[in-house]
Specification:
17% of the residues lie in helices and 35% in strands. With 139 residues, the protein is α/β, with parallel strands linked by helices.
Length: 139
Amino acid sequence: MRQLITYLSFNGNCREAMLFYRDCLGGELSWQTIGDTPIAEKIPESLQHFILSASLIKDDWILMGTDMVADGELIKGNSVSILLDCVSEEEFYSCYQRLKEGGQSTQEIERTYWGVLFGGLTDRFGNQWLLKFANYDKT
């Protein structure tokens, strides 16, 4: 396996969420709306602005999203989390605070016994995030 990519589904607010994640994490964001596709003429006008596929790319990671939900409603659960392995303590705290805006902490930031700075949160879109930084001074 070359790469594992996190792919999130939204209910009409993919654009807002991906812009939020770009603002929090940085990276290059691109997307394709339904209106930009060859099937646009077959889709109701009210859905033309929905995101078919969005990609946020930074360094060697990719976060993808869509407004297209398979038959039925979107149901958010707690069975999937996005883990950010941060390269610095500054990046850790910056990402944690930005992602938590409008959301809530699920795991307060702590320096763990297993040697990492660790924290968890649910963002304002209902997605679960875990953040870690492993190279802190343990003294």
